[in-house]
Request: fold
Amino acid sequence: MKKISLLILEIIFLVFLLILLPALLLSETKYFFREGGTYQIALNSGKEYRLVFGHPPNLNSLSLRLKNPLIQNNSRIEINLENNTQQSLAKFVFYGSNVGDPGWVDFDFPPQSGTSYLLKLSTDNTVPESLFLLSDPPGNWDLKSTYKTTKFTNRLNDTLKSFLNRIQKMDKIYLSLYLFTFIGLNWLFIKK
Amino acid sequence: MSLTKTIILALILRLLVAPFFYHPDLKSQHFHFQFLSHGVSNIYQYIATNKNSLPYRDTFNYLPLTYFSLGTYHALLKPLFPQNLSVWLNDWSAAQNSYDNFPFFMLILKLPYFLFDLGISFILLKLYGKKIFYLWLFNPLNLYLIYILGNFDVIPVFFTALSWYFLKSSPKYLSFLTLGIATALKLYPVLFLPFFLLYKPKSIFRNLLFFFLPPILTVLPFVGSQPFINSLTSSGLSQKILEFKIWYLPVFPAVYLLILSNFLRHRHLEKTLLHVFLAFIVFVDFHAQWLLWFLPFILTTVFKTKLRSLIFILISCLCLLYIIITDDNFLFWGHLTPVSPAFVFLRHPHEIFRYRFLTDPYLIQKYIKILLALFSFCLIFSKNEKN
Reply:
């Protein structure tokens, strides 16, 4: 009986580690991870910088990469997130001293139900070539985003699906060898 | 429980842990080891020459024997590697943690550790009996240091333990030859050398000769290579040992000398190495895997009485806390990358302390060091014998 309970304990550990723990902790999923842009868009007053993007529902964070060379510029920067009907969803105001050389600036907000967005950036900077937004040469801003899965049951379902999907894509020989060794050792332990 | 059953249980436990935990050191080391199978014999020069074209540009900071031994393992097992392991080793992009076979990468790269880990357990069984054997195999701290951190330190630790075994039972030259092999893999066994030499101070020069044989033989071909010299002189251990100073005097070396002079009075190696270990965790800004160096020697002393065991468990927990509040997510959630790459993006304890509790984690680390010093005193002065 004790020997069988060891096997149950092992299965509980694996289920906890591989399914329950990710479902419990990973409520945010990364969507955009666009980095590495070397192109710099100079930010100046009197101009509005716009980015239109589509996203899965429950978008809850965005990060932009800005550059303030030597952290000398302390201009006001305003970011406005709007939906496709140009209704404001979230607004952020910060200053140049909060920007790295370069650095990601994170914006967290409650999950949004829409799937298409407009991001507007404006500044009162009057010193040319002193504050930048990083992007790739065609002008796609460096962008990170996450969306939230709030309900635990949905997360559990997602984790289970991705786990089964992953198992199917795994190296079959190694998977069989691992399971064979694992079951074999347990069988030996029970038998002895 | 019989010996066979204990080993089976230990293997099951290791099979449950090894595939699902990761630290990037394992990848960076094997990134370098793979070059042996490409015919590169001077890895230090190769990196210096090709730095700009390599996907990972850090230098190789280990000794030549490490490169040749683990490089040979890498080369021999390459045909049996899981799909994409070689691709993953050379992938340092944002997608590097999203490989479906990640758990198997971990398993195959950590496989040699099973052998050395079990090897240490058998040495401890011979030296100290079943209690320490069980403590080694089922101690969570060991499992963390060997299979979660995944560093190769278990290999030199095996040779150091073997050296201690030979010192107690065999012709002494074998002991010093083995300690020399450990030193040729990683420099830290030099810390143990004076104690081993003075344990039974006979034929010191002959023993020194055997000790220096493996490091000299393996290092000699590289002495003329400047990148190798640079790598050797930038050793993290030597810098960290000298880091903490009072009035320009490095504290750890001073305490080490005091412990050595005390050792000459009683020549009790396990007790002395416990003192070195305690001085090390208090005065050196240690890396997590360095804790493993002392464990085979100190288990017998720390688990002698219930009180000592309790103090040691507290010390271990404090050491773990010290490690996990380091500003490195791969020392906490990042370990779970093989389960899901999204764990890397969770807030780790350092960030939680800093941004949620507005507390400086480095200050907490200093408080932990003070507590470690306090508990170390308790451990040293607690009763050594069973009531």
